[in-house]
UniProtKB/TrEMBL annotation:
Residues 167-323 form the Glycosyl transferase family domain. Keywords: Transferase. InterPro entries: Glyco_trans_1 (IPR001296). It comes from the Bacteria. CDD domains: GT4_PimA-like. GO terms for molecular function: glycosyltransferase activity. This is Glycosyltransferase. One of its GO terms (biological process) is lipopolysaccharide biosynthetic process. It comes from Zoogloea oleivorans.
Amino acid sequence: MNLAFLVPGPLDQITGGYLYDRQVVDGLRARGRQVTLIELAGRYPDADDAARTAASAALAGLPSGSLAVIDGLALPAFAACLPSEAQRLRLIGFIHHTLSLETGLSPAEVDRYATLEATLLPLLRGAICPGEHTARALIAAGLPADHVAVAKPGTARPRSAAMRSTQGPLQLLAVGTVTPRKGHLLLIEALAKLRDLDWQLHCIGSLNRDPAAAAAVARAIRAQHLDDRVTLLGEQPAAALAAAYRGADLFVLPSYHEGYGMVFAEALAHGLPVIATTGGAIPDTVPAAAALLTPPGDSATLSEALRRVLSDDSLRARLAAGAMQAATQLPDWDEAVDTWAAALDRVAA
């Protein structure tokens, strides 16, 4: 049977969620399943008229009984059409994280997304998500527990060894779209207290998805006179990203919330010590043996953790060994797609 896979905008966007979507679509096709990709026009997740029109047309064009997967980022666009279409279609949500937990929303926006999710999620036949943390949120929003499946994303194994230097500044790496949820402003604030240590930070991730957030981070870097230490590189091709992981001494990203945190798994696969937070699913993805985890939003504790790891070679070595051990437990993409396909079959039955 053909599967319709609905995503908000082009599938080739460079975020963890879109990467997971691409791997699933390509992996299912490689396994002989028919997948029709539908790239929805409009703005997401704050759906505009174009998004709502595209969502309605996409479902209306499917024959009754069709199986369709909707990426959770697009879900608000289906608010008007989902109640009726869910009666004739088998609709599955692919929920990377719940939208109401996005950082930087006003109380009214949090309430609006929470109400939408509580209304729309129970209309789905089921949902697939990347971890237990998001699964619990979906169940709390009204989906029956036996209609929710967990399928962790895969992690690509490095093709070449690390090329870290024993001389010069320690190289810090942050990978993630520059949005309030990823905590870049908090990171700049924490690093500003560590001018006495020798370090450099490279941030890889889109500066265009949230221009206001990116501008705020750039202003903070200038205000703290860290222009010579912090570089915002924007999105980078896969080869450049892989080289950045290989050249880093430490991975740091103080996200306020993650539904899984694919970049943390990538850091583990490269044997990097991790400094992160306890936000969302991060403690499920990053074990204590590989990381120092701080409370979300706590700049002082984050700064202290950074100082510890930057100042202690033996601690970095222990955390790196913990990362390498943790990486052996991460599924590769073949395993992940197999798990995802089995999850789809179960929740769609």
